[in-house]
């Protein structure tokens, strides 16, 4: 009971996942154009109003939740698996392979933030798949670096030496002594990675480099709403709040997870 | 010292070489024919051929790569497809605005984050700490493409205090810099807090206390320098997020820097300029990081020797 | 001006319990009381977690954030320290009362020069002589003067250096200089030499003694090391579970400790005298301090516990030699502080009693072969059963090594680590961690490899097991040269060669169950599988005294000593013939160390194991080893049987090393041979004999070439030019 239980963040993330996964079966009409309702303010019929084409903002918001979820989870899965495998293998194998991987990581790290993803997405063209590819090309590096550092430091531990002295074979050492212990920080990193991917997807869509219209994305909703900010601020407020709430919740969960894992390692290290 | 310096510069050069190669390959990633992508499907075959030759895309890949590197050595980045101006000239025109924005945002972030982080660490576990960390968490979670429009709505449209966009009026810089600096300030405040807390646990702080030093002398003389040194390298790395964020912020505010140029060029399919933008921003980033690394070397006596 | 400088009464300190559900506090110091007189050294002795460091921090009011002094009084020369404002207390800290800590490596600020750090203390607390102002010039002069006083060569230059440029011993000297800046009346030294090598420890203790004589300051020495206490303290107080349980002058205490705990502590110390028997052990663990005690805190572990010990908290009783001394014993509230010179003990055995009734057999704890663990709680081995075995073992031990066959022979073993720099990881030099080592391991025998940190002894162990690949030399085992085998071929021998590490916790995977940890070798080498393997693991855990129910638990659920037993079980699982023991007891308290040493000895007798015992602790060597090899900077400088080397050391380094070991027994103390400076780096060893720059007996020729081994007997060689020609004067 050190801090408040993370009820709220868990609830937000669960709701987000639920909406995203059930999306196709929900009675949503994100693309229904209703000209009389153009820029309509929130009302009983349209809880979040309508956008500049008269489309219902709530439906687009829920549909955008699915986009954010697919990209967030997709990018983290692809980049974490590739990154962790490559980085972990480099750390475990050492030698020239490690040297090459380190240099490649360095080159990718030299592109600031999502700059490379912006350029890539721009060149590849819009689309959900391309967004995931562009963000994964940027994203794998962090996991690779972390996994490599983890494996390198774990390799020095005495229980690994003891296992070698007992004649335990290398694959088994990797499987039993290195990977389980390297996993925890990677999981924490992946949690924060989901938050980062959600922001990045929305950012790309905001720049018009994300999903293909008319598919809904929180980023493109903000982009479309900016021009009508004075007359219909809800077009910007609603999707922005959605991004922030989800990202905040995921970040809070990551924090909790990190604290939790740290506490354990502290207790273990007594 | 000099050995370390040379090796650091050497690895920076190697990284830059890799960056150049990757940027060169970018254009070849375009699915299908890049020329078709640039001109659209309705373009005449003669125009396509002309562009292909102008860009040297008809040559073998190795030859293209050699030409590209030779061009780089002469600072020749090709010509814009829009107005045929040299890319280097276009970039040079836009660079100052981005530097101005990034530096202002960075200073703003540091001015906010360091006092906030130190305060939160000293008042650990109190309301001040909780408030600072809440600000930080919200700041990290607030995307700049949302914060920017919100600030415009509040300060430009409703209050009318500051211009909506552009760079030519007094006060133009305020909103873009705040937008860009907020996330960095939030991240740095957490780092400063964590770093100060960690240093305050160190044995040498106990030694200083046992010497009879006051708490403020302890903080200023013994804790801060040790706590801020690691933050310095993190600032260098966070600069990446700042430069990446500048692309979006500049677009939101119509700020005439490299970021908005990049987005404009992507939309106009002006690939030579896209390449140039990515290359220049990355080079600036690598240069700044190498510099902070060397500054760290100078500031920390443990690394200074050998 | 009174005799008493510091008076501590009923000092009670609590730490907020982290993670405990009840929100209860841990009472780390409970009604601690003692006096320190001007100029004397009082040692506060106890094992880890007994509250000795918390007592020291309470005196300085430097407790961690969760700590609080809840009761008591501390008076320094009449000043009530607990009543001072924080501001006034700062004037006392580093002024009238200085403190030095265990870890010199981390206790200095890495980004400030040592001169600047001392100058801070001078600035705050220094008093300039009449006629000189508190100028920057004066401060600088004073800093240099202080550095000179603590024996730092070239002090003016050193003042401008950063901590990382100094060795551990030098850093501790800087810490002392800093503490001296305010001319303290009392210096609190919290385990000041625990992190240092024994020759450096000798330097620092010598320095403290000298400074104390010059300045007349009193010293409160916090330590776990009985030897250090015996050699440096005037008086001592023994702490157990947050309380002081015995106070006495050093002479009285070592002549006859009164408390059963103190007595067991002494008996659990390994030494040559005890080598033919088991060491005394204290069963169980220190009780948790987060609840009130109804009786004596030691009762559950005490071999003399009486019924009422569990109900009545003992007061102070005089531990007098004669019944006449027990006059005051009815008064349970008697405070030892009122009679500083008396020998007082907090134990009900001493109520209305004297030495003759409490410890009838002998006034001193037995240190010879008759020392048998008394009482049922002590050991599973009964005295009757061990006596004949001891005699047989003593006979075996005395046979010369050549009569034992060689199991494994290392010749000219080298392990050089490349130093790589720059972009392409170019090799610019080598750290010659092991540089030509010869050694032989024999079945049923222990070879101790002794040396200070950085001498390469651990790397020898890893090199033999091929955990670090040797860069030269051979290791003959079972007809193969292990250094030339590939990984696959080496696996065939893995079963025979095992290792135990210093830190048992780090050497177990925290995510694996104890049963899987112990069984890992069985599975990896395909020795046994399934149910048979589990049965074998259960047997092993019984054999090392843990019990098979441990199989389903995780390493963090066990204490340090238990963890080391589990590691021993893991090594035993594959039925090895040789075990490399790499400082297996250095991280453990003395009473726990005794359990592990007993176990290792028992296993050797039962299974005929051969040990390569890597250690820096000479008393463990004396207790356990048959042969000794002394290492200095990558090479063995002297080797022989334990008796040969310890009784008649020939190499000047061996002699200095042995003389630096603090001894409890006055009779065993040697004339100290002070070594100057520190061990050089193995990447750039001195030319010729590596030891010659520090050698008190160096000859002009020593720098020319590394001396060859001179064989003094079948079992013994020395690598020193002084032994090349037999010289009757040397080694007298």
Automatic annotation (TrEMBL), chain B:
Domain of life: Bacteria
Membrane topology: Multi-pass membrane protein
Protein name as it appears in the record: ABC transporter permease
Entry keywords, A to Z: Cell membrane, Ion transport, Membrane, Nickel, Nickel transport, Transmembrane, Transmembrane helix, Transport
Membership in a protein family: Belongs to the binding-protein-dependent transport system permease family. OppBC subfamily.
Transmembrane spans: 12-30, 101-121, 133-161, 173-192, 227-253, 273-292
PROSITE patterns: ABC_TM1
Species of provenance: Thiohalocapsa marina
MF GO annotations: nickel cation transmembrane transporter activity
Subcellular location: Cell membrane
Every ABC transmembrane type-1 domain range: 95-292
A GO cellular-component term linked to this record: plasma membrane
Automatic annotation (TrEMBL), chain C:
Cell compartments where the protein resides: Cell inner membrane
Pfam families, sorted: ABC_tran, oligo_HPY
Reaction catalysis annotation: a dipeptide(out) + ATP + H2O = a dipeptide(in) + ADP + phosphate + H(+)
Signal peptide bounds: none
Domain ABC transporter: start-end pairs: 6-266, 419-658
A single GO cellular-component term on record: plasma membrane
Keyword Signal included in the entry's annotation: no
Its EC number(s): 7.4.2.9
Coiled-coil segments on the chain, per record: none
Key word Membrane present: yes
Skewed-composition ranges (Low complexity): 371-395
Bilayer disposition of the protein: Peripheral membrane protein
Start and end residues of each stretch annotated as Disordered: 364-403
Family label: Belongs to the ABC transporter superfamily.
Protein name: ABC-type dipeptide transporter
Protein's organism: Thiohalocapsa marina
Lineage, broadest ranks: Bacteria, Pseudomonadati, Pseudomonadota, Gammaproteobacteria, Chromatiales
């Amino acid at each position: 009971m050190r801090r408040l239980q993370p009820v709220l963040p868990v609830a937000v993330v669960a709701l987000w996942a639920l909406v995203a996964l059930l999306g196709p079966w929900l009675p949503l009409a994100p693309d229904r154009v209703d000209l009389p309702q153009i820029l309509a303010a929130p009302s009983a019929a349209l809880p979040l109003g309508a956008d500049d084409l008269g489309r219902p903002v709530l439906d687009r918001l829920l549909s955008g939740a699915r986009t954010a979820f697919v990209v967030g989870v997709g990018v983290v899965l692809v980049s974490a698996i590739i990154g962790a495998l490559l980085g972990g293998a480099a750390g475990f194998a050492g030698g020239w392979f490690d040297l090459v991987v380190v240099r490649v990581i360095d080159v990718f790290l030299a592109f600031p933030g999502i700059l490379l993803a912006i350029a890539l997405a721009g060149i590849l063209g819009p689309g959900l798949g391309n967004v995931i590819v562009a963000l994964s090309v940027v994203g794998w590096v962090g996991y690779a670096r972390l996994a490599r550092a983890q494996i390198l430091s774990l390799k020095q531990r005495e229980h690994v030496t003891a296992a070698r002295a007992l004649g335990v074979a290398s694959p088994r050492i990797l499987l039993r002594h290195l990977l389980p212990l390297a996993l925890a920080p990677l999981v924490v990193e992946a949690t924060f990675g989901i938050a980062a991917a959600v922001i990045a997807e929305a950012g790309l869509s905001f720049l018009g480099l994300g999903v293909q219209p008319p598919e809904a994305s929180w980023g493109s909703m903000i982009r479309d709403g900016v021009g009508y900010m004075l007359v219909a601020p809800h077009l910007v407020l609603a999707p922005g709040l959605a991004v922030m709430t989800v990202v905040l919740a995921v970040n809070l969960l990551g924090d909790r997870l990190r604290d939790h894992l740290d506490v354990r390692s502290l207790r273990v290290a007594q | 010292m000099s050995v370390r310096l040379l090796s650091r510069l050497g690895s920076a050069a190697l990284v830059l070489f890799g960056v150049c190669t990757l940027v060169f390959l970018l254009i070849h990633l375009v699915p299908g024919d890049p020329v078709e992508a640039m001109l659209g499907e309705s373009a005449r075959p003669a125009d396509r051929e002309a562009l292909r030759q102008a860009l040297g895309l008809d040559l073998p890949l190795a030859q293209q790569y050699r030409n590209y590197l030779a061009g780089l050595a002469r600072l020749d980045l090709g010509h814009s497809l829009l107005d045929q101006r040299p890319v280097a000239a276009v970039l040079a025109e836009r660079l100052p605005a981005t530097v101005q924005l990034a530096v202002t945002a960075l200073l703003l972030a540091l001015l906010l984050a360091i006092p906030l982080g130190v305060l939160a660490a000293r008042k650990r576990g109190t309301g001040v700490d909780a408030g600072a960390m809440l600000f930080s968490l919200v700041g990290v979670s607030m995307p700049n493409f949302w914060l920017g429009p919100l600030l415009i709505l509040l300060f430009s449209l409703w209050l009318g205090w500051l211009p909506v966009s552009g760079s030519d009026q007094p006060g133009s810089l305020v909103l873009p810099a705040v937008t860009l600096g907020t996330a960095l300030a939030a991240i740095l405040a957490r780092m400063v807090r964590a770093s100060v807390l960690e240093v305050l646990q160190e044995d040498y702080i106990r030694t200083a206390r046992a010497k009879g030093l006051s708490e403020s002398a302890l903080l200023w003389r013994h804790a801060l320098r040790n706590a801020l040194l690691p933050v310095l390298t993190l600032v260098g790395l966070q600069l990446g997020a700042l430069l990446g964020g500048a692309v979006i912020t500049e677009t939101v505010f119509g700020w005439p820097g490299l970021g908005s140029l990049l987005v404009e060029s992507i939309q106009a399919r002006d690939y030579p300029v896209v390449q140039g933008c990515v290359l220049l921003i990355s080079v600036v980033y690598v240069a700044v990081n190498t510099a902070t690394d060397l500054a760290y070397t100078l500031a920390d006596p443990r690394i200074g020797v050998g | 001006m009174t005799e008493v400088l510091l008076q501590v009464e009923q000092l009670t300190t609590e730490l907020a319990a982290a993670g405990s559900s009840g929100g209860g506090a841990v009472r780390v110091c409970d009604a601690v009381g003692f006096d320190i007189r001007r100029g004397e050294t009082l040692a506060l002795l106890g094992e880890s977690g007994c509250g000795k460091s918390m007592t020291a921090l309470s005196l300085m009011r430097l407790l961690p954030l969760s700590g609080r002094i809840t009761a008591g009084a501390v008076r320094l020369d009449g000043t009530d320290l607990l009543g001072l404002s924080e501001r006034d207390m700062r004037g006392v800290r580093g002024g009238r009362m200085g403190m030095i800590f265990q870890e010199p490596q981390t206790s200095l600020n890495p980004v400030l020069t040592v001169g600047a750090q001392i100058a801070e203390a001078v600035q705050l607390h220094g008093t300039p002589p009449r006629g000189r102002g508190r100028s920057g010039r004066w401060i600088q002069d004073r800093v240099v003067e202080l550095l000179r006083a603590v024996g730092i060569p070239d002090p003016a230059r050193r003042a401008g250096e950063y901590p990382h440029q100094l060795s551990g011993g030098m850093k501790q000297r800087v810490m002392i200089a800093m503490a001296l800046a305010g001319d303290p009346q009392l210096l609190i030294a919290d385990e000041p030499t625990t992190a240092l090598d024994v020759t450096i420890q000798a330097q620092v203790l010598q320095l403290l003694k000298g400074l104390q004589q010059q300045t007349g300051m009193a010293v409160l020495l916090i330590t776990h090391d009985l030897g250090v206490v015996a050699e440096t303290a005037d008086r001592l107080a023994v702490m157990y579970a947050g309380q002081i349980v015995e106070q006495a002058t050093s002479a009285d205490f070592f002549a006859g400790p009164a408390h059963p705990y103190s007595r067991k502590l002494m008996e659990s110390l390994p030494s040559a005298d005890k080598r033919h028997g088991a060491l005394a052990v204290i069963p169980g663990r220190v009780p948790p301090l987060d609840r009130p005690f109804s009786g004596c805190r030691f009762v559950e572990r005490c071999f003399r516990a009486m019924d009422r010990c569990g109900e009545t908290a003992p007061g102070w009783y005089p531990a007098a030699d004669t019944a006449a001394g027990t006059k005051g014993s009815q008064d349970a509230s008697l405070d030892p502080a009122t009679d500083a010179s008396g020998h007082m003990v907090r134990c009900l055995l001493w109520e209305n009693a004297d030495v003759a009734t409490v410890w009838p057999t002998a006034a001193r704890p037995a240190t010879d072969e008759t020392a048998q663990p008394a009482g049922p709680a002590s050991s599973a081995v009964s005295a009757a059963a061990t006596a004949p075995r001891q005699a047989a073992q003593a006979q075996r031990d005395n046979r010369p090594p050549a009569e034992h066959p060689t199991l494994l022979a290392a010749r000219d073993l080298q392990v050089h680590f490349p130093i790589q720099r720059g972009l392409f990881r170019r090799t610019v030099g080598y750290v010659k961690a092991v540089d030509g080592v010869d050694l032989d391991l024999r079945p049923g025998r222990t070879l101790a490899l002794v040396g200070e940190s950085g001498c390469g002894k651990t790397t020898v162990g890893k090199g033999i097991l091929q955990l670090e690949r040797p860069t030269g030399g051979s290791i003959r085992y079972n007809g193969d040269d292990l250094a030339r085998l590939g990984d696959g071929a080496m696996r065939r021998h893995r079963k025979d060669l095992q290792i135990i590490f210093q830190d048992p916790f780090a050497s177990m995977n925290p995510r694996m169950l104890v049963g899987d940890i112990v069984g890992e070798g069985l599975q990896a080498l395909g020795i046994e599988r399934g149910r048979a393997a589990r049965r074998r693991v259960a047997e092993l855990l019984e054999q090392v005294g843990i019990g098979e129910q441990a199989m389903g638990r995780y390493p963090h659920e066990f204490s340090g000593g238990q963890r080391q037993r589990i590691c021993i079980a893991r090594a035993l699982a594959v039925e090895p013939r040789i075990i490399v023991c790499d400082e297996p007891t250095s991280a453990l308290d003395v009473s726990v160390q005794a359990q592990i040493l007993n176990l290792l000895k028992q296993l050797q007798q039962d299974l005929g194991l051969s040990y390569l015992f890597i250690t820096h602790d000479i008393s463990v060597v004396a207790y356990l080893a048959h042969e000794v090899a002394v290492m200095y900077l990558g090479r063995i400088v002297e080797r022989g049987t334990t008796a040969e080397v310890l009784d008649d050391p020939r190499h000047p380094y061996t002699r200095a090393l042995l003389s630096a070991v603090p001894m409890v027994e006055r009779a065993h103390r040697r004339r100290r041979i002070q070594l100057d400076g520190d061990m050089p780096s193995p990447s750039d060893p001195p030319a010729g004999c590596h030891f010659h720059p520090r050698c008190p007996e160096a000859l002009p020729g020593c720098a020319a070439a590394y001396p060859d081994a001179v064989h003094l007997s079948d079992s013994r060689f020395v690598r020193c030019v002084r032994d090349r020609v037999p010289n009757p004067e040397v080694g007298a």
